[in-house]
Structures are given as structure tokens and as C-alpha cells.
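Fig. S4 source data, part A: sequence.
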Amino acid sequence: MSTDLSGIEGVTYPWDDYPAPGTVREVADGILWISTPVPFVGLRQVNLWLIRDVAGWTMIDCGYGWDETRGLLETVWKEALGGRPITRLIVTHYHPDHAGNMAWIVERWGQLLPNMTLGEWFAANVSMNFGYADNIKQRGLWHKKHGLDEQRQRLFEQEVVPYDVGVSLPGQFKRLRENDIVTIGKDRWRVIVGQGHAPEHVSLYCEARKILIAGDQILPQITTNVSTWPMEPEADTLASFLETCQKFLGQLDPETLVLPSHRKPFRNVLFRLRELGHHHAARLNVILEASKGEVTAGDLLDVLFRGKLDGHQIGFAMGEAIAHLNYLVQTGRMRRVDTRDGTWRYAKLDGFDKPVTLEL
């Protein structure tokens, strides 16, 4: 009997805990869940997925590129694959907890071309050369322009984890595009490209089985980081993220089982997508309420984020504060103020008394 979960207030979790290190859990016929560690405070872990294919297994994402994850993967491959090889690797996006072991997995299984979008391949390769989101010096100057105080700036410089520490990249890849069909075993998985978190993030949706491998695009409990980076300073990444949420709302079945990259698999995805809209509306309204005069992104960290941020988190917090300010500028609620000292400051525009609402 079909159960419509779209009206339930909250997501539901079919499993109470995570697979033990070095083990798998079958979440659907032929789909195995692996949980691996990451070195980032608060993130806890990242999920990888194995899907039974015709001659072997398709693997989704690579985990962070350190020995601990590689040891766990070797154990999983020995115990769970039934003697069959990894025959295909799909990478949702370029971030180190997803792309970290890419070259190692390719070399370990041989003749693999990682499947990913062109935008994610470019971002990974540019970041390896300290560009894109990993130019730490450029990010430091960017933070200063946006009003980050010296103490937090020093903490960022001391504790940010460079991209190349946890990532190894192969020399070739196979390109994925929006609406590509990836056949795995008897199932057809459609590529849905998302934005806001990464340039061209891949999620995979099997409509027949009502299963979405969501990557970081839709997460339960925690919210996807949506940041603006210094190489595209006026980018409205929040609008891009919300547009992707709206796209998912129009395409996913209410009963879809979501396999996210962080935290546990869940149901009631339509509720979660709408909840994300309400979350970002609340953040925008907090910024507007806190903006009595001119403000900087650095001023907003204590307003937007609870608790003490470590140096790595400060970088993402600044990116997210700037992304929300850019959205308010693009939607005409705030303006950027030109200052003689080069600091980017923001001020509310008159005539907008009603709070921001984001109804997805």
C-alpha cells in the first residue's frame, strides 16, 4: 500500500544508526551504504554508495584521501563485493570528502574513468593548484575586504585544511551532463545537476525505484553550505541553490528514499526541500534585523552562527554570510556601499518592511 509522506511534519529515518567502520548496510536491493570518517569538525562522516552492476559494482564518491578511509575501503571491498570488481566510479562533486581518493581508486581498480561533470572536474583541478575555492591567500584578502576581525583571520590561516592535503586526481575523466541516463544493472539513473554548493553537482535519481542519491545537495539535520567565493565575488549562489531545490520539488516522487552524503538516509524529501527554503528565509531576515546601519559579512558571523567556529569553519561561514548578502543585494533589499578603505559594507534599502519569504 502506498503511503504519501508529503504532509508529515518532518523527515523520517529508516535506520537508527550508521554502518560500523569497514562494513556495509544494504539500504535497497543491490545498494550498499558505507560510512567513512572526515577530518572536519562538525561534519562527522561522509557516505559512499555501492550499486550492484552487471559485471561488478558502481561506486558513488571516494571519501577523504587519507589512510584511514583507504583501509576501511579495502576491508569493504574484500568482504562485501562478492569477489567482483569496481567497474565504474561516479563523483558527485569536487570537494575533498567526495573526490579525495579518486586517483587511488582509479589506480586500485585499473581502467576506470571517473564520471563527473565538467564543472566539477575543472574545479578539482584548479583547486589542486590553489585556485578556485582553495587559494588561501586570496581568501584571506577576501575575508579582510568583508570585515573579518584579525583574531578570526589568524585562526583561519592556522587551521584551514588545504585541498591538496586530502585529494589525489587522475589525469582523465568521463563527462556527465544534465539528464544523462546512467544504466546500472537493470536500473536507469538520471543525472540531475545542482548548483549553489558546488559548480555542477551530480545527483542520481532512479524514478522507477523512487531512490535519489543526493550527494550534498539535499541533507537532513544539517544544511548544505552555500558560499560565494572570491573569484566570482558577486555570484548569487543562494538563488542558484534555491532554484535547484525547486527543480527537485518538481521531479521527485513524495515517497523517494534519499541517500545523502552526510547523516542518515531519510524520507519525506518534499518536506525537507520546503524546510530548506524556510531556513534560508530565516537567515536572510536575521541579517536584515541585525543591519541597523552599515554591516560587513564579518560582523554577521556572531549573528548567523552559534558557538565557536574553528579556522576551517570560519572560511565556510564567511562564504555563506557573503552569499546571503549577495542575495539581498540582487533582490533589491540591500545595497553594497563603496568605502574609501576598500571594505565591502552593506546597508538596507528603504521600503521593505515585510520579512523575506521563500515558498518552494
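Fig. S4 source data, part B ends here. The radius of gyration is 21 Å.
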